[in-house]
Amino acid sequence: MSDPDEAGRRRRPRVRVVAAAAAVALAAPVAGCAAGGDSGTPTINLYYPPEQNLQKVVDNCNAQAGGRYEIVYRVLPRQADDQRVQMVRRLAAEDSGMDVLGLDVTWTQEFASADWIREWTGQDKAEVEQGTLAGPLETARYQDKLYGAPKNTNVQLLWYRKDLVPEPPKTWDQMISMAQDLKQQGKPYQVLTMGAQYEGLVVLYNTLAESAGGRILDDKGTKAVMDEGTVRALKQLRDLAASGVTSPSFSNATEDPVRLEFQSGAGAFQVNWPFVYPAMQEASPDLAKQVAWARIPGIDENTPSKVTIGGVNLAVSAYSRHPQESFEAATCLRSAENQKFSAINDGVPPTIEQVYDDPEMTEAYPMKDTILEELKESAVRPLTPAYQSISTVMSALLSPPSGIDPQKTADELRDAIADALESKGVLP
């Protein structure tokens, strides 16, 4: 994605309102997915992102169901935006062929506010809440009610070259200084992370803002705040971009290119998701021996960072013909046993804390203690039904990071986020 022209870099994005009726009018034709006959075995259609070994989990749950229902895994598109569009269109058309939905953690409030998903109550709710980490559980709530069952979570780590850096930095400023020293010595020095105009940039900024004690929205998620902490985070992001230690492609960088650039040997530091670990073991085993991991640096040395979480919540469609079986199926899919299987075989971090204590996790997740440490003090992205609109305007105003004017950009963000909250459908 190319940078906008210099004159337009700090210009507030133009916005337009997307009417809810348009989403219904554009709804794709409803696919004829089997829902099971009234007298036969109910089919529970699971709409979930691609996960290589999830079918094994589905098979296990079907065996456990003993013929009371059969889960069928309907694989969503690989890209998150395409997943959301497919589900939104079909739910807007009240498609009864959807039962259990795998929602990105940023979508739960939107789907709940639209009455597209059912509340988890009673024993189903109690079972989900038992032992689940607080951060992932927070993403599954809307207006103090539970609308999702956290199946897996995710959190970024600092990956660093221990042959270049004896101890990991405690702050971003320390990391920049270390990188500048390495650069002067002619050694690999770059700080590599995601700076393109997309969700990855919003995640980076949210981590910086939360680590600085900043608030983007108020506690109710209904008012734009952009306080002093968020201004400090804007300055930190701008300082990183202007430090001379990022990649020349920083303002266009996304997750996998960042991984590949670090694997090439150019970087001393990488802020990225845990998927980089097995990829590095396979593609660059010699380099992998020199790479260690740590908690992402904070803003202040004596205040630990708060790192933004990702993940997937399981929700039950409001239009499912088999809600009771759907809740049971979802509960099985995210059980501790199945979360451990998915963690070991597909690399998706569990949301149930006890799973991290399992001895089998140590080999698959040597960084599990650091992941759990971050998860216990994690940050979530703004919890609001308007998050997609907020993310869009934030990524536009944060890009390119080198063009940030901290106080001015904070004021522009406050106004743009306020507009997004009001219309719930703002696009640049």
Number of helical segments with 4 or more residues:
18
Biggest sheet strand line-up: 2-1-3-11-6
- Alpha carbon gyration radius: 22 Å
Strand content: 5-15%
Structural class: alpha/beta
- Looking at the structure, what is the overall shape? globular
Helix content bin: 40-55%
Any low-confidence stretches, pLDDT <50, length ≥5?
A: 1-37, 424-428
Amino- and carboxy-terminal Cα gap: 15 Å
The ordered H/E elements are HEHEHEHHHEEEEHEHHHEHHEEHHHHHH
Largest sheet, described in full? 5 strands, mixed
| Total strands | 11
Would you give an account of this structure?
The chain is 42% helix and 13% strand. It has 18 helices and eleven strands. The protein has helices spanning 20-25, 54-65, 80-92, 108-113, 122-129, 134-139, 172-184, 199-211, 228-241, 255-263, 276-283, 285-288, 323-333, 336-346, 360-364, 368-376, 387-398, 406-423, and strands spanning 43-48, 70-75, 100-104, 141-142, 145-146, 149-155, 157-161, 190-192, 267-272, 291-294, 309-316. The strands form three sheets. It has a five-stranded mixed sheet. The chain has a four-stranded mixed sheet with strand order 8-9-7-10, sandwiched between helices. Strands 4-5 form a two-stranded antiparallel ribbon. A hairpin with a 2-residue loop joins strand 4 and strand 5. 45% of the residues are buried.
